[in-house]
Amino acid sequence: MPELPEVETVRIQLLRKVVGQTIDSVEVFHSKSAGDDSEIEEKLSGQTISNIDRIGKLMIFCFTPNEDLFLLAHLKMTGQFFYVGSDSDVIGGGHSMTAADMDLPTKHTRIAFHFNDRGTLYFNDMRIFGYVKAVNKATMLEAKKRFGPEPIADDFDCEEFGRKLRLRRTPVKAALLDQKFVAGLGNIYVDEALWRAGVRPTRQAKRVTKSEAKALCGAASDVMKESIAVGGTTFQHFKDTGGENGNFTDYLKVFGQQGTACSRCGETIKKIRCAGRGTHYCPGCQK
């Protein structure tokens, strides 16, 4: 599943392609992906994309002249955005791409946004868990309220993070995966941040010390910023909107490294289940 760095990579690259573009028409190939909104074309036709915002893994398309209109987009597990320019060049990001994905629309294309300049933005989703929904400002603000602060934000309060973390009655990994507590941390980056901070994922959150919470706060921010800088993490699924694999995989210290020696202490990295997810940690240096 694409995580915050992957979604941010797609957002940044789509900004360069679709901001300033005016939607001429909308084709809905699967109504569930559009929130079963039969009026989505009427709402979006003639609107110009003015910005693409994001909170957590939720992308928010903004428009003009209707400033009370927003498009909430979530890739979930298998979502993709492909932009086909008037020169027929294809760029895309999301679930892994094959040659068949380049012949758009495909059997997995759920929505197509056609622009006045003859370019098209396609939303593909094999498993139909993702969505693209047209909403008003009040609904958009309600959606944003469901997310906690992001560790990569300049104003993220590490002291407040530590205080709230020690009030949780769950393993620390479960707390970090809760998007209402902190936004954007997914399975990969939680494991990596916990390794960097030297905290075992099964540790009860209430037992994390102030110094450990501070280290964890910094580690969560650093690991995501570093991943964004290189285009995200790729396994079999994610590619960015230039069709390039994110390459933060080369920097992973514990995720997917089970059975290998920890680069910090030499102990063998283990994989267990924690918070319902496959979890990787070093028993030697994560206490």
Structure description:
With 287 residues, the chain is an alpha+beta fold. The chain is built from 7 helices and 11 strands. The strands form 3 sheets. A 5-stranded antiparallel β-sheet has the order 1-7-8-5-6. The protein has a 4-stranded antiparallel β-sheet with strand order 2-3-4-9. Helix 6 packs across helix 7 (210-229). The radius of gyration is 20 Å and the shape is globular.
Chain-wise SSE layout:
Blueprint: H1 4-18, E1 23-28, H2 40-44, E2 48-55, E3 58-64, E4 70-74, E5 79-84, E6 90-94, E7 109-115, E8 120-125, E9 131-135, H3 137-145, H4 158-165, H5 172-177, H6 187-197, H7 210-229, E10 270-274, E11 277-281
Antiparallel strand pairs: 1-7, 2-3, 3-4, 4-9, 5-6, 5-8, 7-8, 10-11
Helix pairs in contact: 1-7, 4-7, 6-7
Strand content: 15-25%
Q: Under the CATH scheme, which class of the largest domain?
A: Alpha Beta
The secondary-structure class comes to alpha+beta
For the report, how would you describe the main beta sheet?
5 strands, antiparallel
Radius of gyration, CA atoms, in whole angstroms: 20 Å
CATH-defined superfamily of the largest domain: MutM-like, N-terminal
- Overall mean pLDDT stands at 91
Number of helices: 7
Looking at the overall shape, the CATH architecture of the largest domain is Alpha-Beta Barrel
Helix coverage percent of residues? 25-40%
Task: Give, in order, the helices and strands.
Answer: HEHEEEEEEEEHHHHHEE
CATH topology annotation of the largest domain: N-terminal domain of MutM-like DNA repair proteins
Give the termini distance in whole angstroms.
28 Å
Rough shape? Answer: globular
Counted beta strands:
11
Q: Spans with pLDDT under 50 lasting ≥5 residues?
A: none
